[in-house]
Amino acid sequence: MSDLLARDLIRDVPDFPKPGILFKDITPVLEHPAAFQQVCDLIAADAKANGAEAIVGIESRGFIFGVPVALELGVPFVMARKLGKLPYDRITEEYALEYGTNTVEMHVDALKPGQKAYIVDDLLATGGTAAAAVRLVERLGGVVCGFGFMIELGFLGGRENLLGYPIHALLEF
Ligand code: AMP
Q1: What is the pLDDT of residue 98?
Q2: Is the CB of 127 under 6 A from ligand 1?
Q3: Alpha-carbon dihedral sign for residues 80, 84, 85, 91
Q4: Percent of the chain scoring above 90 in pLDDT
Q5: Structure confidence at residue 105 (pLDDT)
Q6: Mind listing the domains of the chain with CATH numbers?
Q7: Ordered DSSP codes for 29-74
Q8: pLDDT band at 70, cuts 50/70/90?
Q9: Does residue 146's CB lie within 6 angstroms of at least one atom of ligand 1?
Q10: Which of 101, 109, 110, 130 has its CA 20 to 30 A from that of 78?
Q11: Ligand 1 site-directed mutation target among 123, 135, 147, 149, most atoms within 8 Å of CB
């Protein structure tokens, strides 16, 4: 999208959090209300087009974009949280990150069987995080109806980990 306000706001931070990683800092987008709103509107439109009945946000930047999308659509917001953060009974999935490994969890009653879940995060890198979120949703009987990302790092091939699912990314690097 050529008139995406967020395009010129994303800041490259070299060697964060580890040497060799070029970190895409999205905080300037959040500080620009029109750009932030536009990103949320575009993700919400795609979630709606894919029939989302719930939005799953991946901690923590997936919460920032996922919550306004869920409110815009009037559907439940479900948290996929890092290990040890959720208080109630939960299921767990481990995954490899571009820079390390991590674990993501979801409450056992977060989705109903057959419920269409649209997964939101700020950035698609290797796709390991998003694939773990798919496993959580499907273990609960939910149906992944699509993904919304602000940024896709195409050179890392994350889409290969998410074959068969509709993926919408607003910006590709
Ligand atoms: P992945 O599982 O490799 O697709 O990594 C995606 C998750 O890691 C997202 O939640 C991103 O916020 C974060 N992430 C991975 N690589 C980067 C990067 N280069 N810049 C900013 N965030 C990143």
Answers
A1: 59
A2: yes
A3: positive
A4: 94
A5: 98
A6: 33-172 (3.40.50.2020)
A7: HHT-HHHHHHHHHHHHHHHHHTT-SEEEEETTHHHHHHHHHHHHHT
A8: very high
A9: no
A10: 101
A11: 123
